[in-house]
């Protein structure tokens, strides 16, 4: 195809930069000319009739499922459970009486996910595929499709598809919530909130140099690293660490900040990089800061990524405040840039990491 890198050295950076535009595009696609949210009514009805949402996915899409769990539970009033495609293909757990399956897949071609979809179809479970590729296998074989409209994603490491998945599911949640008269959904102005997210992303993108400088000292030679966070930030930590592993080959783990002390803190030594994510959630922010102090006391080299309202003078990377349903989108951006610059500074091929394929069509 003709999709070029333009002036960009790598697709990954180009695709990171496209995210504000993708957020705005989704607001156009999933609203009508009066600004009302429009999601296919058949999807809404099938979801409202269900008693539990199951999100099935692999890799970064699996992490996007976690990042969307909170907003979907709040807006739809249904419990949301996550499933790894390659596990559920062989070990489907006991399901609720009226399950609704959501397949998250950038490519729509992941064989592990398709295997679960085939079984779900046999069981008569309503299935929605959320994908970037119209006409893809998972889209064709599912009862329903929602598209990500993120434009082709070429870099092997997924960035804009992750944030687009969360945003698309926010529209789904809003539409379902309106249908059931959920007060939180009525109050959640998804278009406005996503426009603030787009601005937050832009603000972070304008700080590339600051982020690159942090990375140069922290990740140029290290063999391992940790991301920590609580709640939504824990889910972002999972994706942040996957991204870093994929493109920099640094062994990295995303940890629930409070769980680190129950074993893994044994790995913290002088200079171990620990990146802490702290979104504006009063219930947990102080606790995550406590966990930061614990690792600092053991010699960790800490970088904090913090939302503006709760940031201190000595925090490293500050992001704009956004709606808590969408904080994963805004908080993940610095971590995408961290992965990108780590790969660059280690002299690696950012767009084509060893051993990885853009989409895996074998089980
Ligand atoms: C591969 C890619 C990952 C991707 C995963 C799921 O492993 O390298 O970046 O997250 O497949 O792909 P999908 O297209 O289903 O989202």
TrEMBL record:
Its main location: cytoplasm. It is an enzyme of class 2 (transferase). It is found in: Cytoplasm. Transmembrane segments: none annotated. Keywords: Aminotransferase, Cytoplasm, Glutamine amidotransferase, Repeat, Transferase. It comes from the Bacteria. It catalyses: D-fructose 6-phosphate + L-glutamine = D-glucosamine 6-phosphate + L-glutamate. GO terms for molecular function: glutamine-fructose-6-phosphate transaminase (isomerizing) activity. Its EC number is 2.6.1.16. Residues 43-183, 215-353 form the SIS domain. The active site is at 358 (for fru-6p isomerization activity). Homodimer. Catalyzes the first step in hexosamine metabolism, converting fructose-6P into glucosamine-6P using glutamine as a nitrogen source. This is Glutamine--fructose-6-phosphate aminotransferase [isomerizing]. It comes from Pseudolactococcus carnosus. The lineage of its organism: Bacteria, Bacillati, Bacillota, Bacilli, Lactobacillales. The gene is glmS.
